[in-house]
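[SOLVED] Need 3D model of a two-part complex

Original post:
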Amino acid sequence: MADLSVKIDKLELKNPVMTASGTFGNGVEFDDFFNVDMLGGIILKGTTLHHREGNDYPRMAETPSGMLNAVGLQNKGVDYFCNDIYPKIQKYSTNVVVNVNGSTIEEYIEVTERINELEDIDAIELNISCPNVKEGGMAFGTSCPMAEQVTREVRKVYDKTLIVKLSPNVTNIAEIATGVENQGADAVSLVNTFLGMAIDAETRKPLLSTVTGGLSGPAIKPIALRMVWQVAQAVKIPVIGIGGIMDATDAIEFILAGASAVQVGTSNFVDPNASVKMVKGIDEYLERHNHHTIKDITGGLQL
Amino acid sequence: MKKEVSNLLVASNITLNHDNYLIEFKSDSSIEEIIPGQFVNVKVNKSPGTFLRRPFSVHDTNPSDHSFSILVKTIGEGTKALSRVKEGESLDVVYPLGNGFKLPSKGEKILLIGGGVGIAPMMHLARTSQELGADVHILLGARTIHDHILIDEFKRYGTVHLTTDDGSVGTKGFVTSHQIMDGTIRFNRYQCCGPDPMMQAVARKAKQNATECEVSLENMMACGFGVCLCCVTKTNEGNKCVCTDGPVFNINDLEWQI
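Solution:
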């Protein structure tokens, strides 16, 4: 077996496969299917300061090679996370990352401070890219000054690994990535979903209760790959690639484009074992190409 | 029973009528613990436009030979592709998912109500309830006589009552027009699966008749095991996932305007 380990700041990942927030619950939902500790890390469902009911049904629509969602950060708030969810996930030895959300900078800080107290949470992923909430969310991720400001303020209260999750709904994603890097982000993960919509021509109504939602799945992979490549050229911190990764080949493509690690998202819905299968597939790829370590191919795109 | 993803052998695919198919899967391991009302999520082959799995209620089980069946009504591209699956092929299935119907005590009198393809989970429930010693009545609703399927099979497990929209067989009208629901005969429970407006009408009848009522919801879902949070329904305790907290709900827990 090749050496698949990678480092994202202080995080030591046994392999580059992580799971994307909002597609992996709190990990325990996958315990029936496989040993979650076989993954490099897991990113838990987005957490906010207060309980959020999320958006009304319908919240999803299947689209060509993908899906739209408009969940709207349904979660029971950070207190519930600390008291009820955290004790259930302490059993994992893999890296556990909490996805932190807020509608104001103060909320981001408060959630971060609470999570900081939890010994077994190795990192946070600052979500400035959720397209499905009215306040905050993507507003922070689509304005360079706001992305920088929230990163700077959270950095002040958090010493562990700080990953910032970027929105693709911008003109120049490399500029935002550089901005958050300059404010102390230890890594960037990209991309979150693309703002999209779907209409039922017969009823003339939108398919989502919120009209617009976030597009994910293989449909977005080429754009995500391009963005990862652009960002990897622009920043020195590690880049975590996300966007329509369905199998090991997709993951390898992101790594060749410059990603140190990847997150598996929508694919978890289609095949609960997708992420763990990818670990094996990446190893097979390295063996087939006579590489002993994953680092040999990181950013190894040949132009 | 632990959830699993398995490549299951298609033991048979029987055409029931113009748009309904009964697909039987055979598993290598025991399926004994599947509860009436649970569902499975099937990956559709040979249908490039079908990205997500398609959820189906377990229609019935046969624990002695590790097999269970699903009822597929052709609606879109995915179900049409599934209807063409042949004996001997395999399909990738995540199962078993969700909770199940409340099972009766011996001597209880229950009315199972299925509308359209909503009859799907009722065979497993009817058979199990009969085995438990309940007095089982089954009310099936469809558009016309040609849309009614599996009536003889249902008759093995209880007294069958029929309605059709056009009166071509049974009582004319919706299931709620049938006299079995007029409250004269007391049931311990109504258990229902069908289109939302039908289930809401049944729920209204249940309230009028002061009868306990369970409904099985069919919201659109991406994952089927509680991580995408797409299939929510409003309950007294906020949004809950139909896939994990349901699909079966007691109507008293739902925020239905009935």
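Edit: The longest strand of chain B covers residues 4-17.
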